[in-house]
Amino acid sequence: MSEDRTDVRAVLDQIEASWLAFQETVDSLSDDDLTGPTDAAGWRAQDHIAHLGAWERGVIFTINGYPFHAGLGVDEDVWTAGDIDAINAVIFDLNRERELEDVRTGLRATHTELVTTIGGLDPDRLDAPVLPRDTTTPDDPPSLRDKIAGNTWEHYPEHAEWIVALVNGERD
Q1: Domain 6-167, CATH 1.20.120.450 — does that match?
Q2: For 143, phi and psi rounded to 5 degrees?
Q3: Neighbour count for residue 78 (Cβ, 10 Å)
Q4: On the CB side of 98, how many CA atoms lie within 13 Å of its CA?
Q5: Distance between CA atoms of 18 and 153, rounded to whole angstroms?
Q6: pLDDT tens digits for 100-154?
Q7: Domain boundaries, the chain
């Protein structure tokens, strides 16, 4: 293992800053806010929380040498079709009946596992390509760093924004 851990630490710092901002957003909302309002597709704020947990699990699976789609709970045929809306619909269906506390606890546990898993990475793995290439990324396989970024520090603010808009009645 490489002795220079600063690159892994930098990744973890980016995750932590974005995670804390996301948690602050979610924690500022009531349970009714998180379970009540829906958008046109039927998503509630809690469904966004479950969605983030699924995508974090995909990263954990990838780091540990398993298919990303298995971490999401999505069949390989849905995954290989590459339709992100269809993939997200499966994740939504898998989680729609869960209780809010289960969703929140699940995301926290998954996040802790993800951070621990990334913390144990050899820094050389961060810029290695994720293979086999999945159908949700461009032609070139993304690096593990890109896969982590897209499913953590770049993903949290996107969903925080959607959650706030949903709760404020600004999301169709």
Answers
A1: yes
A2: -75, 160
A3: 16
A4: 25
A5: 5
A6: 999 999 999 999 999 999 999 999 999 998 876 565 655 678 899 999 999 999 9
A7: 6-167
Nearest to 128 by CA among 65, 82, 50: 65
**For the chain, what is the radius of gyration of the CA atoms?**
16
- Whether the pLDDT of residue 70 is over 80: the answer is yes
Cα 134–chain centre separation: 16
> What are the residues facing 129 on neighbouring strands?
143
Which two tokens mark 93? 């269906």
Q: What are the residues facing 143 on neighbouring strands?
A: 129
- Entry pTM: 0.92
Q: Which structure tokens are listed for 163?
A: 């959650």
Q: Which of 49, 64, 53 is nearest to 144 (CA)?
A: 64
Please give the single-letter amino acid code of residue 79. Answer: W
Mean pLDDT in residue range 147-162 = 97
Per-residue pLDDT tens digits for 3-30? 466 899 999 999 999 999 999 999 999 9
As given in the structure block, the two tokens for residue 32 are 């009714």
